Amino acid sequence: MSESGGTSGGRGGGGSGRGKGGPRDSSTRNAQGRERNRSSQKSFTGNAPAQRTRRADPARLVAFEVLRAVAAEDAYANLVLPSRIRHHGLDKRDAGFATELSYGALRGQGTYDAILARCVDRPLNQLDPAILDALRIGVHQLVAMRVPAHAALDQTVGLARAVIGAGPSALINAVLRKVTAHSLEEWLELLVADESDETKIASIRYAHPEWIVRAMRQSLVAHGRAATEINDLLEADNAAPVVNLVALPGLGSLDEALENGATPGELVEGSALSSGGDLGRLASVREGSTRVQDVGSQLVARAMAAVDLGPRTNGGEGAGATGEAWLDLCAGPGGKAALLGALARQQGATLLANEPAPHRAKLVSQALSAVPEDVWRVRTGDGREVGTEQPESFDRVLVDVPCSGLGALRRRPESRWRRTPKDLADLGPLQRALLTSALDAVRPGGVVAYVTCSPHPAETTAVVTDALRKRDDLELLDAGAALDGVSLTGNLGAGHDSTAQLWPHVHSTDAMFLALIRKKA
Q: For 138-182, what is each residue's pLDDT tens digit?
C-alpha cells in the first residue's frame, strides 16, 4: 500500500472549530434516525471535557459521506466526491485532504479491516456500517497520512460524535487508540507473520482481494510479462493517480492548464498532467475543448484513427480519406467519442456515437458539444444490433466494451471490493456479441479496435481469439506498433502476439488493452 500523504500536508485539528455539525437536538435519535447511545462512559479522548471536539471537520465529513454513499447506495466515489466538496464549500486545501482521505480509505479497505479485526472485540460485520466507515477513515489518517495521531483521533471521534452519536464515538476512540500502537509496516508484519501463501500476503500488503491478485498475476503472464511484476502492479494501483488532460485536436489548447501548474504529457501529443484541484475553473475545460482523460484512452483512440487502411472499396485513398464513416459502438460517457470526433473532423470523416442508455447518451452529446455538429451524431440503442441494421457501413469502429474495470482500480478505488470472479463470466457473452456487431458493421478493408480497461485474458485475448476462429475474413494488425506510432516515445513496449496491453506500473496509464482487427477486402 502506498503511504502517500497526498495533499494532507500534516493537517491537524485546526479545522475542528469550523465544523458544520449543526445544533444537537434533545431527542433520542440523531439526524440519521439512529437511537442515540446514552452510554455512561464519559471519556473518549484524553482531552478535558471542554476541549473535546464535538463537531465534524468539513473535510472529514465529506470523506465520511463519500464512504457512506459507496457502501449504502452503491455509489461511485468519483461521482459523489465533487458534489460533496461543493456542498460543504471546501477550499483547495481541504478538498485535497478530503480526496486523499476518501480514496485512501476506500483503496486500503481490506488492509484496514484486517487491522481493525485485531482491535475490535467482535466481528466487523456486527458493527454498524457507519461506525466501520468512521473507523476506516481514522485508520487511514493514523497509518498512511501525515496527520498527527492526536489530531486524527480527536477529529475522527468528533466526526463520529456529530454524525453517529456519543456512545459509538467512545468505541471509535478506544479502537483507534489500539491502532496507534503500531506503524503501518509493523501492522503488516503482524498480519502476515503466520502466512505462507504469497497470494494472501500480497492481498493483505497491497489491499486487493485474493482473486484479483491471482487474476492480475495471470494477466501479466498472458500478455508476455513476468509474474514477478505483480507487487509492482498492485502498488501502482494504490498510488494516487495524476489527472490526465487532453486538448481536443484542432479545437482545444493546453495553454491555460499549463499556466495553472499542469505539465506537458510525455506519452502522447496534446496531453498534460495536472496535480488536480478544481479543473472546472479552467475555461477550456468548461467549454469541453480540453478534457480529463487517461493517457491510455487517448493512445488507443489515436491508434485506431491513425491506421492506414490503404485503397478503399468506395474509391477513397488511405488513412483518413475524406468521406470515411467512423463508429464508436459503446460511447458512454463520451470521453473517447469526443477525441474521435475531433480527429474525424481533422481527417474529413464523420462519427456515429452509439450508447444504449438514454441518460448516458446525453452525456455523450455533452462530451461532443465542442466538436462541430456536422461531424457527429449520437444513436441511442443496443450496440449489438448495429451490425445487423447497418452492415459494412463504417471504415473504423471502436468497440470499448463493458468490462470488469480491473485496469482502472487506481481511479475507481471501490471497484476492487465490488467486483467478483462471476463478473468476468457474466460479461463475456456481451463482449463477444458487441465485437461481432462491430465486425459486421465495418466495411471490407476497414478496421475494428477492440478495447477494454482490463488486462484479464478472459476479457481480452480470449474474446479476440474466439472472433478470429469463427471467421476467415479477419486479420490481426500489430497493435503494439500502432500505439508506438501515435506515442511520443515511439517505444512503449506494449505489444505481444499482435495485441497490446498498457500497464499502470510500466506506462503510468490505466491497463488498457487494444486489438486491431482488419476485415479483409
A: 999 999 999 999 999 999 999 999 999 999 999 999 999 999 999
User: 330 an active-site residue?
Assistant: no
Q: Are 375 and 337 in contact (CB under 8 A)?
A: no
Q: CA–CA distance from 268 to each of 91, 209, 303, 454 (Å)?
A: 32, 33, 11, 21
Q: Is the pTM of this model over 0.85?
A: yes
Rounded to 5 degrees, what are φ and ψ at 8?
Answer: -65, -35
Which is the CATH superfamily of the domain at 293-519? Vaccinia Virus protein VP39 (3.40.50.150)
Q: How far is CA 2 from the centre of its chain?
A: 16
Residue 462: exposure state from Cβ atoms within 10 A (0-12, 13-18, ≥19): middle
Distances (CA, A) of 26 to 31, 308, 423: 11, 73, 47
Report the alpha-carbon distance of residue 271 to residue 263 in Å, rounded: 9
CA dist 215 and 456 (Å) reads: 7
Q: Does residue 33 sit in helix, strand or coil?
A: coil
Q: Where are the alpha helices (DSSP H) in 13-165?
A: 58-73, 77-88, 92-107, 109-117, 129-144, 149-163
Distance of alpha carbon 145 from its chain centroid, rounded?
21
DSSP designation for 248 = P
Class of domain 13-21+47-179: mainly alpha
Give domain limits for the chain: 13-21+47-179, 242-292, 293-519
Q: Which of 119, 330, 403, 453 is catalytic?
A: 453
Computed over its alpha carbons, how large is the radius of gyration of the chain? 25
Instruction: Give me the residues paired with residue 399 across strands.
Output: 450
Chain segment 307-361, per-residue pLDDT in tens: 999 865 444 434 445 699 999 999 999 999 999 999 999 999 999 999 999 999 9
What three-state secondary structure class fits 267? coil
Tens digits of residue pLDDT in 209-247 = 999 999 999 999 999 999 999 999 999 999 988 899 999
Question: Please, what is the Cα angle at 235 between 426 and 80, to 5 degrees?
Answer: 60
Query: How many C-beta neighbours within 10 Å does residue 476 have?
Result: 15
